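Regression test case RT-17, inverse folding.

Input:
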């Protein structure tokens, strides 16, 4: 049996590639985007009442990692990329039906557009449904997860003086909290856990329309080298 689903909208996100996106929502509160709703959901009717809600659940497609053959085991980055767990014990992107879910902050709404922050979604992500977060039902005080018991420990992010100036200038141009976005995302240490970075090795990612480059002068420390137009 199969069912057909179709997106209610698409996310325009600060994240233009998968690398350096936080592994869950809220880890980078400065990560912002706009959910652009598709007809017939793009009028004030479908969002009537949503102004009374601070956070929403988004159900979406991992559209860049869809696979024909379902995996039964996955290697969560959280476990270093070597250990495997059953697909249903993980929130990895490779999964049956390719469906993701994130609770995100709803900053502003207008017909056809929802402004979001704290997102972990790639630009162009198709959203299948939007549901209000219901604190009394969704907060589970006694919940535990021994695979991911706490957020990843953040690492230090330092700036080359020029890079910080560049980031401030682009933040003003974009009218976005770009300095905070870079600090919050790099503090998650986006490098694959199995890679031991040498100080010579350069890393880079595209946020909005700027390329951010950094290196690891020593283990556990990131130095942002430049923030330049892509
Ligand atoms: N919060 C969601 C969940 O639990 O279903 C996503 C968790 S998943 C571990 C987060 C990662 O998904 C991000 O780090 C990013 O690299 C990846 N991602 C985000 N949007 C995606 C998309 N549209 N297609 C494929 N991968 C995506």
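Golden output:
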């Amino acid at each position: 049996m199969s069912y057909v689903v179709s997106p209610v909208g698409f996310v325009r996100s600060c994240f233009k590639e998968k690398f350096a996106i936080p592994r869950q929502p809220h880890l980078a509160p400065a990560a912002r985007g706009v959910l652009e709703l598709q007809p017939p959901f793009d009028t004030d009717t479908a969002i009537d009442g949503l102004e009374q809600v601070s956070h929403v659940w988004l159900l979406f497609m991992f559209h860049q990692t869809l696979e024909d053959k379902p995996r039964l085991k996955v290697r969560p980055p959280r476990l270093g990329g070597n250990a495997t767990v059953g697909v249903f014990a993980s929130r990895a992107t490779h999964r049956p039906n390719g469906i993701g879910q994130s609770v995100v902050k709803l900053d502003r709404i207008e017909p056809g557009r929802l402004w979001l922050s704290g997102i972990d979604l790639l630009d162009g992500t198709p959203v299948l449904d939007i549901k209000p977060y219901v604190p009394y039902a969704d907060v589970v005080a006694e919940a535990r997860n021994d695979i991911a018991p706490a957020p990843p420990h953040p690492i230090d992010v330092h700036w080359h003086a020029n890079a910080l100036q560049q980031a401030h200038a682009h933040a003003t141009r974009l009218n976005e909290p770009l300095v905070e976005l870079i600090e919050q995302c790099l503090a998650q240490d986006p490098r694959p856990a199995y890679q031991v970075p040498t100080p010579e090795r350069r890393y880079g990612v595209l946020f909005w329309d700027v390329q951010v480059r950094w290196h690891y002068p020593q283990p556990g420390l990131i130095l942002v080298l430049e923030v330049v137009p892509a």
